[in-house]
Amino acid sequence: MKKLFTLSALLLATVVFAQDEPKKLSVSGSVDAYYQTYLSAPDNEGANFGTAFAKKSGFALGMGNVIFAYEGEKAGAVLDLVVGPRGAEATFNSDIVDGIVNQAYVYWNVSDKTTLTFGRWNTFLGYEVIAPAANFNYSTSYLFSSGPFSHMGLKADFALSDDFSLMLAVTNPWDTNDTSFSGEYALGAQLGFYGQFLNLYYDSGNHGGLGFEIDYTGGFDLSDAFFLGINAAYNDNDGEGFYGAALYPQFATSDSFSIGLRGEYFALHGDGDDLPSVFATTLTGSYTIENLILKPELRLDALSNQDDGMFYGSFIDNDGAPANSLAAFTLAAIYSF
């Protein structure tokens, strides 16, 4: 009986110890779909905003992604696989059926304050991200759509203090997610302070590169229910590029519903006067049911200097003729797990 009791106690202790061990492997992801109809243009004429993703009328698929993360004591790895049109566009892959690698990287926690990451990860530039579950607005901004989506290379994150952080990166040029056949590389940096981030990026601008970009991303809790997000950026590639700013006021009316506005001004700069610019206003509701988020959205983009040519999108009116504005209603459903 004594031996049996000792064996039972040992087994019980083993089970309890195993339950106390943290999980090494985690799986997460999201699936989204949407319905979109244009209020100022026919749905069958190919009208679309000049931004990435959500460019189809009628019922459409966004993307599905699954993220596998394995965390060891000092090192780990992340593999993020996506399918669907949004994932294909974000990874510059024309195949919307087969699995696509969105992120794949390994990391090493050198110390409590230093982490090295090697592989491919989503960009640090901009207020928005690829996966719609992490954005308040379902459609994306011109600033986010014009910058890089991902980087392939090596980065180092430093926790300088409780309030300051620093990231330094060496990567392939803009959205060159595989081998850089040009033999050139890009540099990136991010300085963080109390949730405000100043981002810098530079490549030569050759071979379709981005050139130089400085970007500010941040926000402030103005009250328990009211948050104001901010994004501003300036890009220059051999004297040409873009600049703009966006505000994201968001108000939570209850635990399950919030309403938010994105107001954005975006313009090109370079040779010539009166280059095209656009002012885009997006009003989004967000209703949460467990892990499901429903997002009804109204969007109106107004273009200036139409005579200089459309620089993004396809703005047409109800007769199919070129127009200076485009309006749409979108209903999106996003499930996260």
User: And the CATH topology?
Assistant: Porin
Percentage of residues in helical conformation: under 10%
Range of strand content: over 45%
Could you say how many structural domains there are in total? 1
User: CATH homologous superfamily - what is it?
Assistant: Porin
Radius of gyration, whole Å: 23 Å
Distance between the termini: 47 Å
User: What would you say the CATH architecture is?
Assistant: Beta Barrel
Overview of the molecule:
It is a single chain. This protein has three helices and 16 strands. It has 337 residues and is mainly beta. It is globular. It has one domain: Porin (Beta Barrel), CATH 2.40.160. The longest helix has 19 residues. The N terminus is likely disordered. A hairpin with a 2-residue loop joins β14 and β15. Helix content is 9%, strand content 52%.
Features:
337 residues, mainly beta, globular, disordered N terminus, signal, BBP2
Describe the structure concisely for a colleague:
The chain has 337 residues and is mostly beta strands. The protein is built from three helices and 16 strands.
Topology:
Blueprint: H1 2-20, E1 25-38, E2 58-71, E3 75-83, H2 85-90, E4 100-111, E5 114-122, H3 142-146, E6 150-159, E7 164-171, E8 186-193, E9 196-202, E10 212-221, E11 226-236, E12 241-252, E13 257-269, E14 277-289, E15 292-304, E16 325-336
Antiparallel strand pairs: 1-2, 1-16, 2-3, 3-4, 4-5, 5-6, 6-7, 7-8, 8-9, 9-10, 10-11, 11-12, 12-13, 13-14, 14-15, 15-16
